[in-house]
Amino acid sequence: MSTVNETLIRDIVSEVLGRLGGGPAKPAPAPASVPAVNPACGCPIVAKPVSVARRGTFGVFQDAKEACAAAHEAYLQLSQKGVAGRTKVVEIVKRLCDFNAVPWARLELEETKIGRLDHKIEKLKGQRAIPGVEFLQPYGLSGDHGITLEEYAPVGVIGAVTPSTHSIPTAACNIISMAAAGNAVVFNAHPGAAKCAVTAIRVFNEAIQAEVGIENLACIIEQPTLESFSAIAQSEFVRLLCVTGGPGVVKAAMQTGKRAICAGPGNPPVLVDETADLDRAAQKVIFGAAYDNNLLCIGEKEVFVLDGVFHQFMAALDKHGAFRLNDAQVEQLAKAAFVFPAGQGAGCPHPVVNRDLIGRDPAVLARAAGVNIPQGTQLLFAETSADHLFVKEEQMMPFLPIVRVKTVEEGIAESKKAEHGYRHSAMIHSHDVSHMTAMAKALETTLFIKNGSCVAGLGNGGEGYSNFSIATTTGEGICNPRTFTRVRRCVMVDNLRIF
Questions:
Q1: Contact, 322 vs 378, CB < 8 A?
Q2: Count of CB atoms within 10 A of residue 334's CB?
């Protein structure tokens, strides 16, 4: 096995850890114990403080090497359980997410201080829709020369980094997809959301051991560090990496010598043309951009509107509860929202988003802008230029810049420029199929939603399955059990046809 470059690994993790503010995560107080009842047996479940967890108990480890070895043993055990064992694991994770959605959502919100409780609850309850073993249908064919069967085989142990934006939901959907495919996993969670992740992983493993007889199928490092992820990436047992982050993270992960599933950055644009249902478009844009305070990587981040309907669209946003800022308020918010590296000013090409505003409620942003807003306001918006920082940077906060364009062609060009070629997500509100087609071809995004909010691309208001790992850079798209497999072909040669 090739040696992993330590500098590359450090680049991976430092970017993941610093992506939400340019520095190490701020320490958060340990969440309080959460009483619950195991729906399988009626026994009480207590989310114990992380500090009292024993080493290697129910998937929680201090040492990454030990975690990887334990996960490998669990993978071998799962292999003996067959499809029935995988199915049971998937059902356990889904059931516990649904049952513990409220306390776990509170734990995550208390630890991270970002997002919205109602949407965090919804993301956990939504785990029921994550596909499982049913997604692994084999492909078979027969002919004059015999029979061939192609199946999706597990890779073994997977090393995964989860973000602070969706810590428990991402870990849960990864376990569902990876275990359905027959794998085990070792998590190195974002330290800003590690306590809540450890709580959930311990409960998952406790139930899996009780009902399936396997301990440590989903392992996690209790106190994640750069060194712990380096050890995971270098482990002889880890065959695959699942990493979320920006371009530097993706580049470094792909140079580790191991196969990597890479969810890169996004800055999703929206185009609204003159044929759109403006009232509906405004409602969908508000819902998507306000979802979990715009933490979703697929969320609407900037809107380009045709000049002929610009004022009507702005009025529709105001009608449906968004609050409009004036130019001075936008600039005051921008000064608070973007932090420039030491010694560099507003001309710096790569400002850092102020972590104190990421995922915060609109009222917090409004105070930073120097304005009071009505209680219950879900989103702030304002007209800006196409080259404004709020348009160019993925800011992950409930403020939406609206840009006026003269033509559809200009709108598509500006959308492509703002999306930076990440090919992540984009939306259009239009009744002109040619406009939809032109934008889809120009941006080539992994998700392209027409006349819906961003979450319609994950089955919330649209058709399809969901997952919080969206591999845009490496091309796998919305992850599912097949993503975490190897395709194996079995061939029997002979004239075996009976007709």
A1: yes
A2: 21
Same domain, 286 and 193: no
Is pTM beyond 0.90? Reply is no
pLDDT tens over the chain, length 499 residues: 444 455 555 555 455 444 443 343 333 333 333 444 444 334 444 444 333 334 568 999 999 999 999 999 999 999 999 999 999 999 999 999 999 999 999 999 999 999 999 999 999 999 999 999 999 999 999 998 999 999 999 999 999 999 889 999 999 999 999 999 999 999 999 999 999 999 999 999 999 999 999 999 999 999 998 889 889 999 999 999 998 765 655 676 777 789 999 888 899 999 999 999 999 999 999 999 999 999 999 999 999 999 999 999 999 999 999 999 999 999 999 999 998 876 555 555 678 899 999 999 999 999 999 999 999 999 999 999 999 999 999 989 999 999 999 999 999 999 999 999 999 999 999 999 999 999 999 999 999 999 999 999 999 999 999 999 999 888 899 999 999 999 999 999 987 777 7
Q: Domain of 212?
A: 6-264+479-487
**SS3 (DSSP) at 432:** coil
Q: Are residues 250 and 318 in the same domain?
A: no
Check whether residue 355 and residue 214 sit in a common domain.
no
3-state SS, 248-303, equals HHHHHHHCCCCEEEEECCCCCEEEECCCCCHHHHHHHHHHHHHHHHHCCCCCCCEE
Residue 495 within a domain: no
What is the Cβ-side half-sphere exposure of residue 3, based on CA atoms within 13 angstroms? 3
Residues 130 and 259 reside in one and the same domain: yes
Read off the tokens for 231: 């050890």
Distances in Å between the alpha carbon of 424 and those of 133, 289, 378, 435?
A: 27, 16, 24, 19
Q: Are residues 328 and 389 in the same domain?
A: yes
For residue 42, tell me if it sits in a domain: yes
371 contacts 327 by C-beta, under 8 angstroms? no
Query: What distance in Å separates the CA atoms of residue 358 and residue 355, rounded to the nearest whole number?
Result: 5
